């Protein structure tokens, strides 16, 4: 059993820890998800990204959280992006767990925690998420947290010259019992 995970909104104090995490896991992430631009890894790149994340949160456009284990070690990230208030009250969920900590339950815990934030204090009504169809672990994380598949996008994601199907999921405040 994995030690409990916690999440916290990213801050400027997290820059060095985040840089180490991203550099240590760069190859692993780039083999599975969209690569970050090379400038992200250059001097000042993480600082720029953190400053942008802080602006996004301040302007209610997105919220980036870091996932830490019970000892406070950075094990991953979970984000709420593309916040749309008017008419939709929705956002998109994304997450990544470092290679050494994959399969230990951190993603499931973090998604549960961030979903509670999104559908609770942030007052969003719907959270969307996507997972590669061949990523059984990520699909399980979403399903365990009450996400329901609503679609499939065929050959819609390319990485390393290979095309993948993407499954589309959603979670609703109403289904979670958070609305009247």
UniProtKB/TrEMBL annotation:
- Under Enzyme Commission nomenclature, its number is 2.3.1.267
Query: Keywords for this entry?
Result: Acyltransferase, Transferase
Domain N-acetyltransferase residue range list: 5-170
Q: What is this protein called?
A: Ribosomal-protein-alanine N-acetyltransferase
Which molecular-function annotations from GO does this UniProt entry contain?
Answer: protein-N-terminal-alanine acetyltransferase activity
Query: Which Pfam families does this UniProt record tie to the protein?
Result: Acetyltransf_3
Q: Which PROSITE patterns match?
A: GNAT
Source taxonomy lineage?
Answer: Bacteria, Pseudomonadati, Pseudomonadota, Betaproteobacteria, Burkholderiales
Source organism of this protein record: Roseateles terrae
Q: Which residues form a coiled coil?
A: none
Q: Which family does it belong to?
A: Belongs to the acetyltransferase family. RimJ subfamily.
Which class of enzymes does this protein belong to? transferase
